[in-house]
Design goal:
about 100 residues; 5 helices
């Protein structure tokens, strides 16, 4: 059993329905998620790695990224779900950036 916040449960159910994910795929998707951290705590290593990776976003192509995502799990539905989760994370991240 996986403990997920209520708002994430709805998203996972949508992924299960839309992509026909198996229990193993759902578990992999849920356990790779990020946990929320207090504002004063230093960011976890994986968050720092993601921020650093974003600096090199222009050095790859969408085709290469798609191939890498597919090769990682060998499942197109999991790859799509990971992209959607990343897209959601990036969209939500903007609200925490300081205003100009």
């Amino acid at each position: 059993m996986i403990d997920l916040p209520l708002e994430d449960q709805a998203e996972v159910v949508l992924h299960i329905i839309n992509f026909g994910l198996t229990a193993k795929q759902v578990q992999a998707l849920c356990t790779s998620g990020e946990t929320s951290e207090a504002e004063h705590d230093p960011p976890p290593r994986h968050a720092l790695q993601l921020a650093k990776l974003m600096k090199s976003v222009r050095s790859t192509s969408p085709e290469v990224l798609a191939r890498a995502l597919f090769e990682q799990d060998k499942d197109v539905d999991v790859a799509r779900a990971r992209l959607q989760s990343l897209r959601k994370l990036l969209d939500e991240t903007e609200q925490y950036l300081p205003k100009k």
